[in-house]
Design a protein that fits this description.
This protein folds into two domains: about 450 residues, ANL, N-terminal domain (Rossmann fold, 3-Layer(aba) Sandwich); about 110 residues, 2-Layer Sandwich (GMP Synthetase, Chain A, domain 3), CATH 3.30.300. It is an alpha/beta fold and about 600 residues long. Helix 4 crosses helix 5. The chain is built from 18 helices and 27 strands. The strands form seven sheets. It has a nine-stranded mixed beta sheet, with helices on both faces. The chain has a five-stranded parallel beta sheet with strand order 4-3-5-8-9, with helices on both faces. The structure holds 5'-O-[(R)-(benzoyloxy)(hydroxy)phosphoryl]adenosine (OOB).
Length: about 600
């Protein structure tokens, strides 16, 4: 078992601090106020302890709806913190938290914050490959899971991950039957907590990067920087203690966590309502019953909600959204056409949000003209968010010209955790983060996202790193080379298409698409990363210097889909199934290049 000081040192060793002159500037400007999450909750509990903080409508369980006041959440965080300490989790230890939208998420996360242990935020969709990586890469001491959720047994996953990771000494299960692990409900105890908690400049947690590399990178966020982004978001989104935030997306993702999300809402003294399912059939009744005022969605969900509300109105009904004041949409580009429907159909103000777990978050403002709200992805939170739009040589471009977005500021990281090689590529020498996004800045300082230079597919807000999936495909004995690209999709915006070149010896009896998909799934990946479509080609098109031309592959699949959809033009696209199309015209044949793994 590592001693606490070892864990703290390990966290520090992987962390790129803000340079002293910047830290001083951010403190002097009043952005970093020396707050920590532990003290933040304590203060809210002191100020309005009897107000409701968390509403968990529960599933079909016997408990029904649970409502925790700020005082109760604070007390639970203390007892969880003491129980974790008693079980050997301490300051600097990493704990992978993979919980659905349940009240325990907050009990665990604030318990960890209080003792200076670091949540590593996994998503419920992650499977053995991802979770195994988070545990081994961070040397995690703990892992927190539900028992069974969405038909998947997380206890089994935990057993496997534990057997492979000697550092993992505690697996906690939120549920009645923990199997061979420890019931989360058995952890909390009354007990003394250390006098000194974490410092405001300490890393509070590790968030996941959407990623464009083989494995997801980890993002260290400090109490100071993250709480500043919460305070800024709360102001921009008009939140106060009357706000009721519906947490629809997975609670651990940066968007529903902090933009302004559940943590912003708790910062403001408002109420967080956890939505167990994101569809309108679950969310609309909760909005009406709990008087929800604000929520955040990815574009595909926003489309579903718009359609559901329109259908109810058309049938003479009322969707019951009268309390909803603000709808945030982000994570992927929201089409202007859909954006225009938000106010008339849902009766609330749209706020576009273009953010990233690495830091920078842009919002359209509530009082922006409607044209700005529907045509831009907002402007930064902070006057000290430095935004550069540059060409391929890092030369600054004038407003109105599309280029690479680079950013630096009081809540944007200076480096991924423990990733010096990646950091050299992802940050400029003077500390600007290369977002990989292509944007244009308007004269009002708003950003319009025009595309992406990073090798990533944005599947309705869920990010898929092409290289990660290519590596899995390359492990298949029949695959010589693989190139994963996005293809347009009316519902998700993009889906994944894997172009595959088979080995010569496999051409006699080539595998079917479905076999390759099954193979990737079988490697223990989150479902959303399994290619939506597999295309076999003899060779990849090449760029001038002989790299795979993903641009040509994207164009080929887009043209193939358009051609196949043409006869049905005018009919409504049916989400979310992938249109079945004949094979795309084969791309220009060039000699295969070596695989780029
Ligand atoms: C959010 O965070 P991540 O870390 O999952 O993904 C960040 C990336 C951005 O670099 C960009 O490529 C894309 O997601 N993105 C958008 C977008 N919002 C995010 N692309 C176009 N339009 C938008 N509105 O996705 C995230 C974090 C905090 C708040 C909101 C989203």
């Amino acid at each position: 078992m590592s001693r606490p000081q070892d864990s703290v040192d390990e966290v520090l060793a992987g962390f790129t601090p803000y340079p002293a002159e910047f830290a001083e500037r951010y403190r002097a400007a009043g952005y970093w106020r020396g707050e920590t999450f532990g003290r933040m909750l304590r203060e809210r509990a002191a100020a309005h302890g009897e107000r409701i903080a968390i509403v968990d409508p529960g599933g079909a369980g016997p408990e029904g709806t649970r409502r925790w006041t700020y005082a109760e959440l604070d007390r639970r965080a203390d007892r969880m913190a003491a129980g974790l300490l008693a079980r050997g989790i301490g300051r600097g230890d990493r704990v992978v938290v993979q919980l659905p939208n349940v009240a325990e998420f907050f009990e665990v996360v604030f318990g960890l914050f209080r003792i200076g242990a670091l949540p590593v935020f996994a998503l419920p969709a992650h499977r053995h490959t991802e979770v195994g990586h988070f545990c081994s890469f961070t040397g995690a001491a703990g892992y927190v899971v539900p028992a069974v959720e969405g038909g998947f047994d997380y206890r089994e996953l935990a057993s496997r991950v534990r057997a492979e990771n000697p550092s993992l000494r505690l697996v906690l299960v939120a549920g009645e039957d923990a199997g061979e692990h420890v019931r989360l409900a058995d952890v909390p105890v009354d007990g003394a907590l250390p006098e000194t908690g974490p410092e405001p400049g300490d890393v509070a947690f590790l968030q996941l990067s959407g990623g464009s590399t083989g494995v997801p990178k980890l993002i260290p966020r400090t109490h100071d920087d993250y709480i500043y982004s919460l305070r800024g978001s709360v102001g921009i989104c008009g939140q106060d203690e009357r706000s009721v935030y519906l947490c629809v997306l997975p609670a651990a993702h940066n968007f529903p966590l902090s933009s302004p999300g559940s943590l912003g809402t708790l910062y403001a003294g408002g109420r967080v309502v956890l939505c167990p399912q994101p569809g309108p059939e679950t969310a609309f009744p909760l909005i009406e019953r709990e008087g929800v005022t604000i929520t955040g969605l990815v574009p595909p969900l926003a489309l579903l909600w718009l359609e559901a509300a329109e259908r109810r109105r058309a049938a003479g009904g009322d969707p019951g959204l009268a309390s909803l004041e603000v709808l945030l949409v982000g994570g992927a580009k929201f089409s202007e056409e859909a954006a225009r429907r938000v106010r008339p159909v849902l009766g609330c103000t749209l706020q576009q949000v273009f953010g990233m777990a690495e830091g920078l978050v842009n919002y359209t403002r509530l009082d922006d003209p409607e044209e700005v709200i529907v045509t831009t992805q907002g402007r930064p939170i902070s006057p000290d968010d430095e935004v550069r739009v540059v060409d391929d040589q890092d030369g600054d471009l004038p407003d109105g010209t599309t280029g690479h977005l680079l950013t630096r500021g009081p809540y944007t990281i200076r480096g991924y955790w423990n990733a010096p090689g990646h950091n050299a590529d992802s940050f400029t020498a003077d500390g600007f983060y290369r977002t990989g996004d292509l944007v244009r800045r308007t004269p009002t300082g708003h950003l319009v996202v025009e595309g992406r230079a990073k090798d990533q597919i944005n599947r309705g807000g869920e990010k898929v790193a092409a290289e990660e999936i290519e590596n899995h495909l390359l492990a298949h004995p029949a695959v010589h080379d693989a190139a994963v690209v996005s293809m347009p999709d009316p519902y998700l915006g993009e889906r994944t298409c894997a172009y595959v070149v088979l080995r010569d010896e496999a051409r006699q009896a080539p595998p079917k698409s479905v076999e390759l998909k099954r193979f990737v799934r079988g490697r223990g990946l989150a479902d959303y990363k399994v290619p939506d479509r597999v295309e076999f080609v003899d060779a990849f098109p090449a760029t001038g210097i002989g790299k795979v031309s993903k641009k040509d592959l994207r164009a080929a699949i887009a043209a193939g889909l358009a051609a196949a959809a043409a006869p049905a033009a005018g009919s409504a696209p049916s989400a979310p199934s992938v249109p079945s199309v004949p094979s795309v015209p084969s791309v220009p044949s060039v000699p295969p290049i070596p695989s780029q793994s």
